[in-house]
Design a protein that fits this description.
The structure holds two protein chains of two kinds.
Chain A (H helix, E strand, L loop, with lengths): L5 H9 E4 L4 E5 L2 E4 L4 H9 L10 E4 L16 H17 L2 E3 L9 H8 L7 E4 L13 E4 L2 H10 L1 E5 L2 E8 L8 H12 L7 E6 L1 H5 L2 H9 L8 E3 L4 H7 L8 H12 L11 E6 L6 E3 L7 E3 L13 H14 L14 E4 L7 H11 L8 E3 L4 H9 L2 H8 L2 E2 L20 E4 L14 E4 L2 H10 L11 H8 L1
Parallel strand pairs in A: 3-4, 3-6, 4-5, 6-7, 9-10, 9-12, 10-11, 15-16, 15-18, 16-17, 18-19
Antiparallel strand pairs in A: 1-2, 2-8, 13-14
Helix pairs in contact in A: 2-5, 6-8, 12-14, 12-15
Chain B lengths: L5 E8 L7 H4 L19 H4 L31 E3 L12 H9 L3 E4 L4 H8 L4 E4 L2 H13 L4 E5 L4 E4 L4 E3 L4 H9 L3 H6 L2 H14 L2 H4 L3
Parallel strand pairs in B: 1-2, 2-3, 3-4
Antiparallel strand pairs in B: 1-5, 5-6, 6-7
Classes of the chains: A alpha/beta, B alpha/beta.
Chain lengths: ~475, ~220
């Protein structure tokens, strides 16, 4: 048999048929729906079609949910309707729903993995572009549009053209404090926002193997920001350990059988990729975006780029436009940039590990600017509170919220004011993403925490020790 | 879905790369329970000088005079010309809905984000990929010539200018068939029910854990 990539193996296992034009009809193992799915349900209703496999679809309320409280009354009527429609559709079609008052509620791409709904070797789709997150557990997962959501609901299948394949191999040891978020922003900054367009990405190498599962989920989450169809990390013993005992993961003999299968989902030694990229972990430092695309990212210790040094005129024009919107100057030090508020949350960086890293920076320190911490799920929130992380955030001066997408996309009303600058642990820094006229700088949770205590973009590794601060105060 | 075969229309420019879906249709307009009426809010942040809200009468809002869609020479355009990575960002299908509702049936760019590209075909909008050099030539023509039009012939996969010069483009046969005939692929897939059922039985035998704990 010819040598296959890990992606090939999963794709082939889900291919029902291949049409004459090369499109594959793919079986979907897990389908997640959120509040934005009502158009798809309406399409089914209009055609009097049932949901084909309601037991394989899972509803999660996340995009529009209030995070300042669990009261729907805190939301505008239209947002309340979005949440209620999800509930109605789930109930009518027999779909399991993790709603506002369910202890398992959270951001769909946090909930899926932590409940063991996300399994290696499965094919997962959701009407959300950051579905690539689930690839961190060795699943083939990507976002789809409303019409495709309707197609999956009606048939449990999807027509897809097999993408090209790209392997990003990262080797070596990361410097202290450098995270999966930095890896992602680094390579997207290096290669560009459409460098992986039309490709399934496999992340490989010693650096990736060393990442925790949470780190791998973050890395895969950001694949879409370079145009990747999906991002994946082959399952290993860490994956199995993570899934052991998860609510919806297989158990006992089933788990042993599944585990043996999962560990076989690796790229064969002689398998080839359409594109190979090699990155040295030593080249990666804490990375921050300066512009309005995730590709406009640089090391925290670098000056802001000069459009006159851009590779071509279109890029120069783009950089100039970004600088103008962001209110920055070419050559300016990134660490001179003042921040107005911070946000720690999102499907990218709101897992327990992320909250711990931010809390570690904030422990014993005070924030000089306001901000919000929104855990990735109600479960993460409970675990963080059990560890006392909530007290650290609150004592430092940040707001401790409920779980939801919150200020990442601002659909629930958590917005940044026009012209305000936010240090954010999220995934997109597009114009107006966090509110009309809002300026977003993407970075890791620890870097966000450092910005909160200094009021500017700061390399958190250079913060004075807490005991030194306390001595100075005396 | 509205069928599309041949479109002859005025071309409007969106001269930038990485046009994201937040830019195409901002988040505040996603709460509408209808699939129509998004046209007035297409490129809302760029098109108007104020912050748009759902339900607002856009005809009363202050326009940005520098934005091409607000210029008389591009009124009634049905073909949008842009650059690389058009439609990047979120998977919101409201992006092609807004383009179609405005009157754009075709978007031409040097590349498209994958999800957006797929979404277009489901909603009667044809995304056409041509090389950077051709995009640049058309931008120059568009800049120099008021009333620059193109004809898009989907059955023959050609874009033809007023002088008869043609550029070929690629499109998947199944997508083309659906778009030319205004077909929805759910109905076509349901014809494959037996194959799907057979696959499901085999899959459940080979990978029982996929179905186990969720029952």
């Amino acid at each position: 048999m010819s040598q296959q990539t890990f992606f090939d193996k999963i794709w082939q296992a889900h291919e029902i048929e291949v049409a004459d034009d090369g499109q594959s009809l793919m079986w979907v193992d897990r389908h997640f729906v959120h509040e934005g799915s009502f158009h798809a349900f309406n399409k089914l209703t209009a055609r009097s079609l049932p949901v084909s496999h309601p037991e394989l679809t899972f509803g999660v309320a996340d995009h529009y949910v209030p995070t300042r409280s669990r009261s729907l009354g805190d939301l505008p009527l239209k947002s309340q309707n979005m949440i209620q429609m999800l509930s109605t559709n789930a109930h009518e079609h027999g779909i399991r729903l993790f709603d506002l008052h369910d202890s398992r509620q959270g951001i769909v791409h946090v909930v899926g993995p932590e409940l063991g709904l996300t399994l290696p070797g499965t094919f997962i789709v959701c009407g959300d572009s950051h579905t690539s997150t689930h690839g961190g557990l060795g699943a083939l997962a990507f976002g789809i549009g409303a019409s495709e959501v309707a197609h999956v609901l009606a048939t449990q299948t999807l027509w897809q053209t097999k993408p090209k394949q790209m392997r990003i191999t990262i080797d070596g040891e990361l410097a202290e404090g450098v995270t999966a978020k930095d890896i992602a922003l680094h390579w997207i900054g290096l290669l560009g926002a459409d460098s992986a367009r039309g490709h399934a990405i496999e992340y490989a190498g010693s650096t990736v193997s060393a990442l925790t599962i949470e780190g791998r989920l973050t890395l895969c989450n950001l694949s879409i920001e370079a145009g990747g169809r999906c991002g994946m990390v082959a399952p290993d013993e860490k994956t199995l350990n993570y899934l052991t005992g998860k609510a919806f993961a297989p158990r006992e003999d089933d788990f042993i059988q599944a585990g043996q299968h999962w560990l076989g989902l690796v790229t064969d030694a002689q398998a080839t990729f359409d594109r190979e990229v090699h990155i040295n972990a030593a080249d990666i430092g804490p990375t921050v975006t300066w512009g309005v695309s995730p590709e406009e990212a640089i090391s925290v210790n670098s000056p802001i780029p000069d459009p006159s040094h851009a590779a071509h005129s279109a890029k120069a024009k783009q950089w100039a436009s970004s600088l103008d919107y962001m209110g920055l100057t070419a050559g300016q030090s990134l660490q001179d940039v003042l921040i107005d508020r911070v946000f720690i949350g999102s499907c990218t960086n709101a897992r327990l590990e992320d909250l711990r890293s931010a809390a570690q920076v904030l422990q014993g320190r005070k924030c000089v600017i306001p901000g919000i911490v929104s855990p990735g799920s109600s479960s993460v929130k409970a675990l963080a509170e059990a560890e006392g992380l909530d007290s650290i955030f609150i004592n430092a001066g940040l707001e401790w919220h409920e779980a939801g997408c919150s200020m990442c996309v601002g659909m629930n009303g958590d917005l940044i004011g026009p012209g305000e600058r936010c240090a954010s642990s999220t995934n997109r820094n597009f114009k107006g993403r966090q509110g009309p006229g809002a300026r977003t700088h993407l970075m890791s949770p620890a870097m966000v925490a450092a910005a909160a205590v200094t009021g500017r973009i700061t390399d958190f590794r250079q913060l004075p020790q807490v005991d030194a601060i306390q001595e100075a105060a005396l | 879905m509205k069928a599309l075969t041949t479109v002859t229309g005025l071309v409007a420019p969106m001269d930038r790369s990485n046009v994201d879906t937040d830019m195409i249709i901002p988040k505040q307009f996603l709460k509408s329970i209808k699939r129509s009426g998004f046209g007035p809010n297409l490129f809302d942040q760029l098109r108007y000088l104020d912050e748009g809200q759902p339900g607002q009468d856009s005809s009363q809002r202050p326009l940005n005079p520098d934005f091409p869609l607000n210029q008389a020479r591009f009124a009634g355009a049905s073909i949008l010309l842009s650059r690389a990575n058009f439609g990047c960002g979120s998977s919101r299908e409201h992006a092609p809905w807004a383009l179609e509702d405005y009157g754009f049936r075709v978007v031409i760019a040097s590349s498209f984000a994958d999800i957006f590209y797929n979404n277009c075909f489901k909603n009667g909008v044809l995304p056409i990929v041509v090389d950077d050099g051709q995009i640049e030539r058309w931008f120059k023509r568009l800049d120099a010539q008021v009333g620059f039009t193109l004809t898009v012939d989907l059955p023959n996969q050609q874009v033809i200018d007023a002088d008869g010069n043609s550029v070929a483009f690629e499109v998947n046969d199944f997508r083309k068939h659906c778009l030319v005939n205004g077909l929805d692929d759910i109905g076509l897939t349901l014809l494959e029910a037996d194959k799907i059922k057979q696959y499901e039985l085999t899959h459940a035998q080979q990978h029982p854990w996929v179905f186990g704990q969720i029952k």
